Amino acid sequence: MPLEPRPDTDTDTAIAVLARGLRLARGARDVVGELDLRIPQGQVVGLFGSNGAGKTTLLQALAGLLPVREGELRVFGGTPAQARRAIGYVAQSVPDGAYSRLRACDFVASAWQGERWGMSLSPKAGARRRAAVREALHAADAGHLELRGMDTLSGGERQRVCIAQALVNPVRMLLLDEPLANLDPRAQLGVIELVRGLRQRHGLAVLLSAHDINPLLGVMDSVLYLAGGRGRQGRVDEVIEPGALSALYGLPMQVARHDGYLFIHPARGFMAEQGGHCEHGDAGAADAQVHAHEHGHGHDHAPASHAARGAR
Length: 312
What we know:
Blueprint: E1 15-26, E2 29-40, E3 44-49, H1 55-62, E4 70-75, E5 87-90, H2 104-109, H3 123-139, H4 155-167, E6 173-176, H5 185-202, E7 205-209, E8 222-227, E9 230-234, H6 236-239, H7 242-249, E10 253-258, E11 261-266
Parallel strand pairs: 3-7, 3-8, 5-6, 6-7
Antiparallel strand pairs: 1-2, 1-4, 8-9, 10-11
């Protein structure tokens, strides 16, 4: 079955992710430093932060795609590479042309037993693969899209199929990089309800990054906020408050509340952007810079002013 049964929650011993003094880098540039992190099985953690703060870097390290520079990172008690088969990862973007002429069922099937070389041609293996694909699509509420072409799907439909691909193997944790990006409010709500259902029905741990904290307030168990090479995890009211954010950014921050929405902004107004700001590019001064515009490409960007767009 693509999804494992929900684990026994009577004990508090199931820890999906445990990090101590974790340092991560891209090339010669340190991105995340001295991070302590604890994610129990079955919890949803929202991942937020400033430009280039390391959100994508952290997700890729958890998926076993990037090495750890220093410190300890354990996923289900082992290294990320050892736990890779238990992790479903949905990247922020895919290469151009990746969806061309692929049906949704074929896209999901391409990840089945992805740790193996080649594809078995035996009838039994084919039947297992088809069953796993159907079950994964059903789990993502995308069964009706099975025969649709990936290039014909809406953004919300495509995101559901991508999540189905992450579920096609038995997994215990989902890592979702900007799953709400470029979706309208209805599609955002659909993805959020899907995450809530996967957590409730299957006890999955979920770590998902986002630009805007507001749509996720009702589903998150805790927040992990990255800024200035540092990070802090805790309840929303522990992390999204002026003292904690000011310590992370290294400058005075404020949190405004209106009609149940949160708005994070520098206490002295917004500052002009300086230098490069892409996490995957050269090092710049972006970690301490805050900007209120959005970008249309697939890098690890997040404005520190989390306006309530798409949440109304």
